[in-house]
Structure formats: structure tokens, C-alpha cells
Amino acid sequence: MKLAASLLSADFAHLARDVGRVEGAVHLLHLDVMDGHFVPNLTFGPPVANALRPHTRLPFAIHLMIERPAHYAPRFKVGPEDSITFHVEAADPPEEALKVIRALGCRVGISSRPRTPLEHLFPYLGAVDLVLVMSVEPGFGGQAFLPEALDRIRALRRAIGGRGVEIAVDGGIGPENVRAVVEAGADVIVAGSAIFGKTDPAAAARELWARATKGS
Ligand code: DX5
Ligand code: ZN
For 150-176, how does the pLDDT look when each residue is reduced to its tens digit (9 = 90+)? Predict the structure, then answer.
């Protein structure tokens, strides 16, 4: 299991500093890229992600909440440890996004909005390395966890079967519900406000990890 810190809740004026604060306490850095079309919010894109790359050893998990993932994915500098995840509802056909991202030599993920039928992801389970289950409506940090995500995680786990596809869960996760998310079958926990929203992000990440792994 892995813990990812979502940069969305970091201080955008001090990204490298904030990443440095959690470097030893998390396994991945989750980067929310938003285009103001796919979701009603704008964040950052390849120039900011690429500028941050030399400042950390943490692998990047890039979450594209954009209409044109196939068009923009090649602008990210990524290696084999990094991943790029796109949404099945985006304007670019999923087959094209898959092919383009795979050719970059990084890991490939697919995601969906919380209310998109899970079956829409099934045709791609043999071609991806991870599925990102959204437990909030994509677009903003600090929202409440949607409890129906737990059933989606369990259903996805069954659909994945013996294939080595990771399940990451993103949105509204904190110390109070992280254990339930893990027990439902998550391999990767993404947390933004529960880490960077706290005065001591490293301590908050360690606490989250302790809760996530308690009893396992
Ligand atoms: C929401 C983003 C999430 C967000 C999670 O659209 O995809 O990654 O940063 O933030 P929290 O953990 O605060 O819900
Ligand atoms: Zn995200």
C-alpha cells in the first residue's frame, strides 16, 4: 500500500518547500491538473509540474482532469515510476489517451467521476496499471467523502480479478475514514487537505499512514 500527498492543498507560492516537508512521510506526489472545462476549476499544467520535478525524488502521480489528455500528456516529463491518469469521460477517446500515455514510458491510469457507471471502465482494465476511484466530485479539495465509493472499490476489486491493476482512491480521505477505504480494497490513498491542510504535514501524513495500516 502507498500514501500519496495531493499538491492541491499545498501552498502554490511555495510548492518545492511544501513537497520537501512530506518527502520522507509519503510514497507519491499526486498532481491535480485541471483545465476549467472538464472541471469548473483551474490549477496548473506541464510547466509547473516539470519545474517541480528536480526538487523531489517522490514519483509523480499526475491526475488529468482535462478534456484533452491525449493532446497534453506528452508535455509532462515523466519516467517509469511516474503515472499519468486520465478520465474516461474526457473528450479525447480513451483508446487514444491510453496509447499516447503508454508511449511516454510511464504508468497509465484511468479514472471516472463518482457517478459514472463503473462498467464504463471495464473495457480498459486490461490496458492500465491503475484505476483512480474518485470519492468526491472532481474539481476541488476539502470536500466530504462520498460513502458509496466503498462499494465501488469493492466492485472494482472483483472486476480486476487476478490482473495486477492498482486501485487508488482520491477525495475526502482523512484519519477518520482511511481504514475503511483500505479495508474496501484500496492500494493507494490520496490525501490533500488531510496532509497539506495541517500545520505539520509530515506528522499528519504519518498519522494517516498509521491509521491506514493499523491491524494489517
Ligand atoms: C479533487 C482532486 C483531489 C483532491 C483531494 O478533484 O482530484 O486529488 O486534491 O483533496 P482532499 O484530500 O482534500 O479531498
Ligand atoms: Zn486528484
Answer: 999 999 999 999 999 999 999 999 999
Q: What is the DSSP string of 90-122?
A: SSS-HHHHHHHHHHTTSEEEEEE-TTS-GGGGG
User: 155 and 189 in contact (C-beta within 8 Å)?
Assistant: no
Ligand 1 near 40 CB (within 6 A): no
Look up 32 and say whether it is catalytic: yes
Residue 216 has pLDDT above 90, yes or no: no
Please name the residues in contact with 55: beta carbons below 8 A apart, sequence gap of 6 or more.
Answer: 15, 16, 19, 20
The pLDDT tens digits of the residues spanning 126-151 come to 999 999 999 999 999 999 999 999 99
Rounded to whole angstroms, the Cα distance separating 117 from 142 reads: 24
Helix (H, G, I), strand (E, B) or coil at 132: strand
Q: Which domains does the chain have, with CATH numbers?
A: 2-213 (3.20.20.70)
What residues pack around ion ligand 2 (CB closer than 5 A)? 32, 63, 170
State the Cα–Cα distance between residues 21 and 201, nearest whole angstrom.
7
Residues 6+ apart with CB under 8 A from 85: 61, 62, 63, 64, 108, 109, 110, 111, 130, 132, 168
- Told to judge if 170 belongs to the known catalytic residues of this protein, a careful annotator would answer yes
Cα within 13 Å of Cα(192), Cβ side: 25
Can you state the angle between helices 201-213 and 15-22, rounded to 10 degrees?
40
As a whole number, mean pLDDT of residues 89-105 equals 98
The grid coordinates listed for 188 are 493507494
